[in-house]
UniProtKB/TrEMBL annotation:
Biological role: Catalyzes the dismutation of two molecules of 6,7-dimethyl-8-ribityllumazine, resulting in the formation of riboflavin and 5-amino-6-(D-ribitylamino)uracil.
InterPro entries given in the database record: ATP_synth_asu-like_sf, Lumazine-bd, Lumazine-bd_dom, Riboflavin_synthase-like_b-brl
Lumazine-binding repeat placement: 1-95, 96-192
Protein name (Swiss-Prot/TrEMBL): Riboflavin synthase
Enzyme Commission identifier(s): 2.5.1.9
Residue stretches making up the Lumazine-binding domain: 1-95, 96-192
Originating organism: Sediminibacterium ginsengisoli
Pathways involved: Cofactor biosynthesis; riboflavin biosynthesis; riboflavin from 2-hydroxy-3-oxobutyl phosphate and 5-amino-6-(D-ribitylamino)uracil: step 2/2
Phylogenetic classification of the source organism: Bacteria, Pseudomonadati, Bacteroidota, Chitinophagia, Chitinophagales
CDD domains: Riboflavin_synthase_like
GO biological process, alphabetically ordered: riboflavin biosynthetic process
PANTHER family xref list: RIBOFLAVIN SYNTHASE (PTHR21098:SF12), RIBOFLAVIN SYNTHASE ALPHA CHAIN (PTHR21098)
Length: 196
């Protein structure tokens, strides 16, 4: 479990394909601290560290993960957001993020304002009930707040720190991002569906 507060970014240094799986070698300031079998959020996707070597770490995505996230489009040299799992006796600075991506979304607008940025994303219509005005959402693993919400799009505002310390600054119109909707909203929706 994560908070959506990105600790650092990593760079994809190599990609290996084995059958329908893809493994990614990543270099980050935290790679040397990782342990085999540790769960780490990579652009909002919870992946298991399966190999460590010379300050690099490797994670592997299976076919299901490649199909539901933007990982199939990752390329060598790409930048990814990195967050280690939450420490349960610490502060929850973002919101509860599982690292289980619900869908991908497309950036349909990027606005540069005087000291901040706004990004508008379009997501699949079937998730409209999970996005609310001023609600939490994870975009590439970053905890953000939605506004200007409609049936299949929302806007987020980005402060300079987030723009320069996460991968959001590399998102452009047409970019595909990973989206995880708020777990509390998902549970409430499920409860309402089952309620007689």
């Amino acid at each position: 479990m994560f908070t959506g507060i990105v600790e650092t970014t990593g760079q994809i240094t190599a990609i290996e394909t084995q059958g329908t799986n893809k493994s990614f070698w990543i270099s980050s300031p935290l790679s040397g601290d990782f342990k085999i079998d540790q769960s780490v959020s990579h652009d909002g996707v919870c992946l298991t560290v399966d190999e460590l070597k010379d300050g690099f770490h490797r994670v592997t995505a299976i076919e299901e993960t490649l199909r539901k996230t933007n990982l199939a489009g990752w390329t060598e040299g790409g930048q990814v957001n990195i967050e280690r799992c939450m420490i349960m006796n610490g502060r929850l600075d973002g919101h509860i993020v599982q690292g289980h991506v619900d869908a991908t979304a497309t950036c349909i607008e990027k606005k540069t304002l005087n000291g901040s940025w706004e990004f508008r994303f379009r997501f699949p219509d079937e998730f409209a009930h999970l996005v609310i005005e001023k609600g939490s959402i994870a975009v590439n693993g970053t905890s953000l707040t939605c506004f200007s919400v409609d049936s299949n799009s929302f806007t987020v505002a980005i402060i300079p720190y987030t723009y320069h310390h996460t991968s959001i600054g590399r998102v452009e119109e047409g970019s595909i991002v990973n989206i995880e909707f708020d777990i509390l909203g998902k549970y409430v929706h499920r409860w309402m569906q089952l309620k007689p």
